[in-house]
Amino acid sequence: MFRHSVLPHKMIWKIFPKLAVVAVALYSMIVGVSMQVDADGHKAAIIELDGIIAPVTQRYLENSLEAATKVDSEVVIIKLDTPGGLLDSTRAMVGLIIESSFPVVVYVAPSGAQAASAGTFIAAAANIVAMAPATSIGAASPVQASGGDFEGALKEKAYQDAAAEIRSIAERRDRPADVLESTVFEAKAFSAQEAVDLGIADLIANDLDDLLREIDGMSVEVMGSTGETQRIINTQGISLHYIEMGFFNKVLAFLANPNLAFLFLSLGGVGLYAEIRNPGMILPGIVGIICLILAFMALGNLPTNWAGVALVILGFILAVSEVVVDGFGIPGVLGIVSFILGGSILFAHFGTPDPFEFGVSLDAWMFGSMVVLVTIVLGVPLIAIAFARKVNRGIPIPQTIGLIGNALTSIDQQGRVRVRGETWNARADQPIAKGRAVRVLAEDGDVLLVTSEDD
């Protein structure tokens, strides 16, 4: 008699809901959105854009609009609070809003929120612009990535590009182009009431419920299959769908901070340097790799000057080369200089000005702290080596006998060891594994006779 290994039907039905939940969760993480859905009535999708406009924000909006389409939303409401953002992401988001097949409302909220710089362009692209009390819109003048103003021909080009972009949006949405241009040329910002009076915002709403009442019955133009068509918004008995950012995108949004990016980049380099200098410690190497991964995730969502990244990495490579090949401290010193130079231009922009840039720069305290840390980590060993060489200068007797070092390579007759901060050729009578501690038995010119410390 044989027993079947097939699961009973009842057990399958018990585990199926759990598998479905896991599948939905994984899908939400991948696409970058999750939805809180009410089953009854027609729907209003709520999207919250809070913080820097970056590639992660663009993906969130794109995925959210797709999700809103699948549930046939009556209207999409974007709650906006941003200091600005990046050119490519802003233009892509403006295009998504204008080409939407259902009405899009930008609601600058809560009180105290702003639609500054790139946020002005995004708000102006919406079918309806609403503002909570004590909010503001404007100040869309271009600035450099370092936060400073452009000068000369670059300034003229940046301002004209930004003005042309906002004029085209104003014409598309029938908003006053001269007022919106003043946010670019004169860096003007307007309160909620001023924005409504001037026509760049349509209404003031205290909260979402108030907003839904105000927009009920409004007629707007949306993009249909045959071009723009009129659509009347109906919010009677509407249910709200909060489309939230998925876990992975939340992580990216958190990491999209210049100070965090520089911190992780610095700690990653320090960790790997410590691991290479002291093989076998493992923990510094693992932490270093994790920090570097987080750093590149952050840098990919910021206006990064990759020449600065290359200089920072070069700095650690030079420091590591001092471990492998004795350079009398010169590679280490150049490594520190390269790190400082790379950090100083990490977010500097030298090419064509970015019209929507809100200014990304390192905090002075963060930059200074990491420079001090890296200088200590890289500089102290160099000073120790230089001091040892000065003390031992002119002494003819062997100076390494009895000292403990590390095997930089596996030693099977021949290999390399690190002793007294210096790299030596070595030989041993018995094989020694890489990373093991060794004791010096004798010197033979520039070759050390070593044995395993465990012996």
- What percentage of amino acids are in beta strands? 15-25%
- Helix/strand-derived class? alpha/beta
> Strand order of the main beta sheet, please?
1-12-2-3-4-6-9
Share of residues in helices: 40-55%
Summarize the topology.
Layout: H1 9-31, E1 33-36, E2 43-50, H2 55-70, E3 75-81, H3 87-98, E4 104-108, E5 114-116, H4 118-124, E6 128-131, E7 136-138, H5 152-173, H6 177-185, E8 189-191, H7 192-198, E9 203-204, H8 208-215, E10 219-224, E11 227-232, E12 239-245, H9 247-255, H10 258-277, H11 283-299, H12 306-324, H13 330-344, H14 364-392, E13 404-407, E14 414-419, E15 422-427, E16 437-444, E17 447-452
Parallel strand pairs: 2-3, 2-12, 3-4, 4-6, 5-7, 6-9, 15-17
Antiparallel strand pairs: 1-12, 7-8, 10-11, 13-14, 13-16, 14-15, 16-17
Task: Describe the fold and architecture.
This protein is an alpha/beta fold and 455 residues long. 47% of the residues lie in helices and 19% in strands. It contains 14 helices and 17 strands. It has helices spanning 9-31, 55-70, 87-98, 118-124, 152-173, 177-185, 192-198, 208-215, 247-255, 258-277, 283-299, 306-324, 330-344, 364-392; strands at residues 33-36, 43-50, 75-81, 104-108, 114-116, 128-131, 136-138, 189-191, 203-204, 219-224, 227-232, 239-245, 404-407, 414-419, 422-427, 437-444, 447-452. It has a seven-stranded mixed β-sheet with strand order 1-12-2-3-4-6-9, sandwiched between helices. A five-stranded mixed barrel has the order 13-14-15-17-16. A three-stranded mixed β-sheet has the order 5-7-8. Helix 3 (87-98) links the parallel strand 3 (75-81) and strand 4 (104-108). Helix 3 (87-98) packs parallel to helix 4 (118-124), helix 10 (258-277) packs antiparallel against helix 11 (283-299) and helix 10 (258-277) packs parallel to helix 12 (306-324). It is elongated and about 95 Å long. The relative contact order is 0.10. Residues 1-14, 16-31, 35-41 and 144-148 have low confidence and may be disordered.
